[in-house]
């Protein structure tokens, strides 16, 4: 695996999955994180063929959820598709409250119960599940798991086959972050590390994330925690931003790679020679 | 103290401090939370006279901060003014990062150090300080204290004269909320309870709070925690909302009171007979 992985969401507004794979390959990147709905758009056979042609692996598969009542019935097919794409892990997306519901207590119990059932399926199918705690500002509508503490607690209760993904955007503010990264590392459950940045001001709760270096997150410090906790995986670039989505995807990816090279001292990234042949 | 307190911020766009006091008195409310800048607008002598004429007390005084480098020099005068207004407690507003700074570690150390110095002043002057943890989405620019856990830790380290205010908007999502409210209650440091609501969707990080009952916070449940923790104070209504600021302040206050009566079973509120005479 190269040291950098792009999540397709970063360029999805202007690059379909086939273009995204091509752009990644051009940059010597051999691993990507992908989205089920984007596979559907280009057709699964085409998506699989493109991955094979580029010799590319899949890190994260987005996503299982939201956990609406009828969802569990469809989850098995989604997990099987993630397995066909050889995904290292599948993101769980709990969703938020049900209509008219108030408070998170019941929703959290429900999500934990559903994750337990999904884990049984995932073990049978042979894919790992990943809990990515989202920012507390998204607790009502996107994820009822809003801290790495909760994610670690849940993984501990459930046993093997499930781990966590640390996204700096969602967790940078948490005074427990270092301790919880270490805790996840000791248990061998750090599955991914997503980078982007928190802008000041932030104008939108969902689509105003920053390019690494443009915001106020101490990215090298959090990378240091991940490395000290034993995480050897790639740095995954995932930026949800209307501003960056409007830019040329190739330019965006080049800027992102350069920023990572400037910020992460341990980063080993070389634009592979064979990548040039794909141009 | 009546069971309901209004924070002037709730109506400040269309009611200056004198109008706000009149509107409160009309509704039989005998305690308010006030703002230093609003006192300045109407003149301190006028503000003090109006409070006296209405026989009204002050709960919270907003605010000490942000803690920019030159701030501590001005803090003493602000604390003294809070004392002249007989405020029960003074809100600390740490502010966020300094220009170019990344991550919260240094900013948190700085804020803790400054709060320690402010507490010495406040003890001398005879006012209580209140830490109100703000939502993690405001960590970068408004408060580096984003959990009741941190606030409790800090109060514990600093000793008497400082407590916490629980605002449902900032803390409703935290899985530690009940435990930390109980911890604060055991230490006798629950100084205030602010209500409003979290709307879905939330369109702005600062000015899109909801009226109680319009959002997804389980308000009766959090009030229950406060009461079980021994909090006997008033319910303070504090809504930062461009939508509600545009409405008639009297109407807003009546709606807010009615919502509180519907949501909080223990609430004792009666529009006092003498209030009508003020109309």
**What's the mean pLDDT score of chain A?**
94
Measured distance between first and last alpha carbons of chain A: 21 Å
Q: State the CATH topology of chain A.
A: TIM Barrel
Specify the CATH class of chain A: Alpha Beta
Q: Spatial order of the strands in the main sheet of chain A?
A: 1-2-3-4-5-6-7-8
Task: Point out poorly predicted stretches of chain A.
Answer: 272-279
Order of secondary-structure elements of chain A: EHEHHEHEHEHEHHEHEHHH
Number of DSSP E strands of chain A:
8
Number of helices of chain A: 12
Give me the oligomer status: homodimer
- Name the CATH superfamily classification of chain A: Divalent-metal-dependent TIM barrel enzymes
**Number of self-contained structural domains of chain A:** 1
Q: Structural class of the helix and strand makeup of chain A?
A: alpha/beta
CATH architecture of chain A: Alpha-Beta Barrel
Query: Which pair of chains forms the biggest interface, and how many residues does each contribute?
Result: A-B, 33 and 33 residues
Largest sheet of chain A: 8 strands, parallel, barrel
What is the molecular shape of chain A? globular
Radius of gyration of chain A: 18 Å
The fraction of residues assigned to DSSP E strands of chain A is 5-15%
> Which percent range fits the helix content of chain A?
40-55%
Tell me about this structure:
The structure is a homodimer of 279-residue chains. Chain A is globular, with a radius of gyration of 18 Å. Chain A contains twelve helices and eight strands. Mean pLDDT of chain A is 94; it is low at 272-279. Chain A has one domain (4-277): TIM Barrel (Alpha-Beta Barrel), CATH 3.20.20.150. Chain A has 279 residues and is of the alpha/beta class. Chain A has an eight-stranded parallel barrel with strand order 1-2-3-4-5-6-7-8, surrounded by eight helices. Chain A is 43% helix and 14% strand. The two termini of chain A are 21 Å apart. In chain A, helix 4 crosses helix 5 (105-125). The A-B interface holds A 96-97, 101-105, 108, 135-137, 139-141, 146-147, 149-150, 172-175, 198, 200-202, 205, 215-219, 221 and B 96-97, 101-105, 108, 135-137, 139-141, 146-147, 149-150, 172-175, 198, 200-202, 205, 215-219, 221.
